[in-house]
Design goal:
This protein is mainly beta and 218 residues long. It contains four helices and 14 strands. The two termini are 33 Å apart. One of its GO terms (biological process) is anterior/posterior axon guidance.
Length: 218
C-alpha cells in the first residue's frame, strides 16, 4: 500500500479544498485556537492538517461513498492524554488526537498521522495504540507487530511519527511500554526569559517536554 509521504498521492489531493464547518458545529467541538482543523469532504477525499503539530488526517479517494459529503474535524486533546492511567512501565509517546465525527461509514481506511517521542532505534519498546471509549476509559486497539487480519487498524511507525490506518474515527493516543532500561523517550528543554529586565533579578522558566512539535506549541 501507499502512505502519506507518497508524492503521487499527496499531489492528487493537493487541489482538494475543504470548506469551513458552520458555526453550530464549531461551537460543539472542545477545541483550542490553533489546535484544530475542520472541513467538508466528498468522494475525492482530501487532507486535514493542524499546522505546526505534525498531526494530519488523510481521507483517500473513494473513502467516502459517491455522492456523500462528510463534515470532518481533527483536534489535539492534551487534557485527555494527561488523564491516561499509569500502567507499570507504560508511558505516553504522543498527543491524544480526536478525529471525527464517529460512526461515519467509510469505504476505505483513513490515515491519521501523529508525532511520537520514542527513540525507535532502541528496540526495547512495546508500542500500543489506545482509544478512548464513550465512557472515558482508555482501551488497547492494537500492539505494533502483532497485527492480524482481524486487527481493527494498522500502524506504520517512522522515526518521529506514526501513520495509523483507521476504519473508525475517534480519540487515539500512542503509548509505549519499556521492558528494559534501554528504552529511550526523546525529551526537549524549553527555556523562556523576559525580553526586558528592570531589576538585578533575571527569571528563567525551564520546561521539560516530550520531543514532538505539538508539545512546544501547546
Amino acid at each position: 500500500g501507499t502512505y502519506p509521504g507518497d508524492s503521487a498521492r499527496d499531489g492528487h489531493f493537493a487541489n482538494v479544498r475543504g470548506k469551513a464547518l458552520g458555526s453550530q458545529h464549531l461551537l460543539s467541538l472542545p477545541r483550542e485556537h490553533g489546535n484544530s482543523a475542520s472541513g467538508t469532504f466528498g468522494h475525492l477525499g482530501g487532507r486535514l492538517t493542524i499546522p505546526g503539530t505534525g498531526v494530519s488526517l488523510l481521507v483517500p479517494h473513494g473513502a467516502i461513498p459517491q455522492g456523500k459529503f462528510y463534515e470532518m474535524y481533527l483536534f489535539l486533546n492534551k487534557a485527555e492524554s494527561a488523564l491516561l492511567p499509569s500502567e507499570g512501565t507504560q508511558t505516553v509517546l504522543s498527543p491524544a488526537v480526536t478525529c471525527g465525527p464517529t460512526g461515519l461509514l467509510l469505504c476505505r481506511p483513513v490515515v491519521l498521522t501523529i508525532p511520537h517521542c520514542a527513540d525507535v532505534g532502541s528496540s526495547d519498546w512495546i508500542y500500543q495504540l489506545k482509544t478512548q471509549s464513550h465512557q472515558g476509559n482508555w482501551e488497547e486497539v492494537v500492539t505494533l507487530d502483532e497485527e492480524t487480519l482481524n486487527t481493527p487498524c494498522y500502524c506504520q511507525l517512522e522515526a518521529k511519527s506514526c501513520h495509523i490506518l483507521l476504519d473508525q474515527l475517534g480519540t487515539y493516543v500512542f503509548v509505549g511500554e519499556s521492558y528494559s532500561r534501554s528504552a529511550i523517550k526523546r525529551l526537549q528543554l524549553a527555556i523562556f526569559a523576559p525580553t526586558v529586565c528592570t531589576s538585578l533579578e533575571y527569571s528563567l522558566k525551564v520546561y521539560c517536554l516530550e520531543d514532538t512539535p505539538d508539545a512546544l506549541k501547546v
